[in-house]
Amino acid sequence: MEYDLIVIGAGIQGAGVAQAASAQGYRVLVLEQYAEPAQGTSSRSSKLIHGGLRYLETAQFSLVYECLQERKRLLKNAPHLVKLVPFYIPVYHNSHRKPWKIALGLALYSLLSFTPFQRIPKSQWSSLNGLKTQGLKAVFKYYDGQTDDKKLTQAVLSSAKSLGAEVIFSAHVESIEISPSSCTTTLLTKGKKHSIKSQFIVNAAGPWVESIIQKTTPVITAQPKVDLVQGTHIIVPKTNEFLGMYYLEAPQDQRAVFVMPWENQLLIGTTELAYNGDPADVAPLEIEIEYLLSVYNHYFSASLSHADVISSFAGLRVLPQADSSAFSRPRDTLLVGDNGDKSRMFSLYGGKLTAYRATAEKVMRRLRRVLPVKSGKRLDTRDLRLP
Description:
This protein has 2 domains: 3-42 and 150-224 and 331-383, FAD/NAD(P)-binding domain, CATH 3.50.50; 85-145 and 226-322, D-Amino Acid Oxidase, subunit A, domain 2 (D-Amino Acid Oxidase, Chain A, domain 2), CATH 3.30.9.10. 23% of the residues lie in helices and 31% in strands. It contains 7 helices and 19 strands. Strands 3, 4, 5, 6, 12, 13, 14, 15, 16 and 17 form a 10-stranded mixed sheet that branches. Strands 1, 2, 7, 8, 9, 10, 11, 18 and 19 form a 9-stranded mixed sheet that branches. A hairpin with a 4-residue loop joins β8 and β9. α1 (12-23) packs parallel to α4 and α1 crosses α7. The longest helix is centred in the N-terminal third of the chain and has 17 residues, at 61-77. The chain is elongated, with a radius of gyration of 22 Å.
């Protein structure tokens, strides 16, 4: 059987593309190297469905607006998976970002999202989960979304399957041959080799995106230079009933670090370190665990030590190569073809959990220029409820 589209990767981006293409009536096959979806980055995120308040600081206004629109859609289409929760931002005398700057950013964020923010009165600071109050100048409260990233990815892929998409798990891509008229993907699964034809391929392999490109004939050269950036989270006991999420400024480097209730425990993250190894081998480093514990202990009276860490996990982001820190780099997703206007394979670089559907919509706009329009009913993913 020949498919209209093969999607490589069953993380959130691949699942989103499969859903969008199937909703338009195309024959779609998803290939996933692991035995189930979301085994890589898509289960190792900060579990947030958010606009990215910190992206306002680097003037990424269109990205923030897009993500907030997608947050709104997910709250409507997946209320069982995405919830609005309160976030608290404490600002101290020695904080890099002053109260007026935080208030200005939150005012703009509220304007874009139609959700309010407020300044917590000093009389209520004692209720903020043992937050240190010495030198505290202000505490702000706003709302954003939280999800189970793995369950969300599974739901999107289930939606794609209900629309006709097929999925092969434990499928290891061996090679891809691209001709002017089609693509042939050779894969290994259950010890057997299979060759499958498709009109087009979307490479949504996340941190393995370049590995897939290297298996392609003819050789693809015109691709963006990217870095893999490791992000680690730790899980520690919840000492009391947390009111919500804490958005903290790391004293070491002014990055954003979240402290979040998660499955009756606390999730603290994330870090940003360059990674150069095999994506399958990514693992938390001691220096990252100590960094996150230090951030927590800087803000809360109940001190944590390494012995309190129940577990930890690390994932990888794909970011544009640059001399600047990962924290300040653009978070836009890149979609790059293998051969300009004659492309048969499109590779996705980066991507945000929140904006997966919008990213898939952009992919489909590109593919609709070259794929024939299918007869029959076509669905809009903006209105599709997730199972």
